[in-house]
Amino acid sequence: MTEFLRRLNVYSKGPQNGNSTATYEAFFDNIASVRPYCRDDRVGTSLAAHLTQKANGQLTVDIEVWHPGEQEKADAWLTAIDDALVGVGAVVHDSFSSPAAGVSLMRVTAALNVISQLLDVDLIAKIETLPAGTTDRLSPSDVTAEELADLPIPSADAPIVGIIDSGVQAGHPLLRGCIVEATTVSGSLSDGVDRHGHGTSVASILLHGSIDTQIASGDWEAPPCRILSVRVLDEENRIPSNRLPQSEISNAVEYLSSRGVKVINLSLGDEDGVMVANRAPTLAAVLDSLARKFGVVFVVPTGNVVPAEYSGLMDDKFRSDYPYRMLESPVSGLIDPAPSAISLTVGGSVPALKPAALGTVPIGKPGWPSPFSRVGPGINGAIKPEINAAAGTLGQGIDGNETQVQDSFMVAVADGRPDGLAVVSYDIGTSLAAPRVARACAVVQDEYPDASANLIRSLVLQSVMGGSSPFRDDQKLTDGVRESKLLQLAGYGEVSEQRSVLSGDRDTVLFAEEQIPLDSVHLYTIPIPESFFIPGRVERGITVSLCYDPPVRARRMDYLASRMQFELLRGVSPDATIDLLLAEEKNARKARKELGQPLATLSSLPDKQRIPMKPSRTARSAGANQVGKFVWRSGLKRFNENSSEFVLAVQNVNRWDTPTRKQAYAVAIRLWVGSNLPPVYADLRTKIRAMKAQAVARSQVRS
User: Looking at the whole model, is its pTM more than 0.85?
Assistant: First the structure.
């Protein structure tokens, strides 16, 4: 509010310093109206339905209390509400407060009339009923335990990946010898044994990837990791009713971190908690603060949506145009915690398909988004999901009937149900896509044990490859619109475990980790391989990924404390690059008036100097996980003394962070050439060594 009033005061003075518009005019133009925050803003969708029914009795709800920024005052507000509720006979089961995330919560059982009265209390931000459990869809296979005997196990020094879920069945043939520990840190659960089956299914994919393929071939690879499972879900696949998800998950993350875990798979979400506008959901904000505090990588799914909820009429066109319907519907957005800015969010994609039953066709094509996978964007337009992975699809009758579930469209998983009749079953869902990405993170950690969470995310993201697009042949859409739609559905592409860690002769990865001051620029000089200059219509390209972990604040319009971004330039000196970047942060109108000419910025450079990577800087810089790509279809030309090198400019712009703080980040760069061109690996290595020698020589001269 202090910042709002400051801006209002500046804006009220009108245009200054010869400018034609007032400072912050665009900000205030976006405000449609100002009114008091009221009970309609506080009531959740599900709670509103309960109150409409005017039923008697009690209800258990989650209450979000405004966080004032000062923890002492936040605790006082929670205590005041707690005392008032106990005074009217309500039960306060749990409370949680995080100053880093800006979140305060309570889980309460109270009479409906008491809950209704709470909707008029100024200290309260939101009240909603408890999330629903997930539906069991498993279909058993005929694979026997004997067929899965003596599978290879991870090496003793393989990285340990955390799973926060319903626990695991450690003795399952697909998990045997891979579980370091299966435990719980919840006072409401007795042990870490899976009594639902979901956690065991997730663990099996994390360990083995495509189980179907390995069953068919009989050739099993050793898992790239071991698993430490912390159970937070009960036998109904729900957080215990007397505990807040934020409390249970925070405790689980703290325990996993104390055991040295860097990668955590969290295949859960609030199916009723669809993200509203740009507001950060509470669990997403908590995950972001935990990722920063403990230096861990969270991998989370987008969540599932029932096609009938977003589709309307289930006609015979649905199986080909469902992606359009998903993007147009207000109910198919991300659910908490999928909008988490620092986490890797994973959408589901249609896998390679087996023959369908007679009269049934699959919905979508291999590589398309699964018809139940929720869509982005994330907070403030961030690209979410960042990655997609196989999650299965649904079938539909050729006459356009309702959707159908068939084994041939599903994903093979370990069946961990206590009463399950099978060892391996088939299932669908984005919960099964997330562990494929967590597995790629484990592969990176195995190769680089000392890598930070930022570097793990960056190396995984630079590996992504674009798949099949449902918009490719739509002539009504421009290329930019096609790209924007696909980013909302599938992010930057599909993960590749191998490309995450390996450099080949024609496919080489460079990476760096650094800390950057606020409102500063870091420059990286990248030698261009000679193969890039060879004439001929052969493709060659570059991919850049950038990941960082800024402070966050739930309910702030500027959710991330700072915004990082990058540009790739060629033929521009480092000094000129800095001047161009600084110019973009100055008041362009004032500069034009004083200089009498347009102020040069990065966007004013020609394409041969400013590499127009896709997606654009504007699109990718809204998030904490960014990827940019560019492909040349012919040889480059040298046009000045700086054109034999790329300059990667990484910029950090402060929004509300502490001015003296430095932001940690990681970048990864992949350079590749087609098979008809000479290799690049040895060439790059030689050039980088020469650049390092030159840098040392310059340093000695200066000293």
Answer: yes
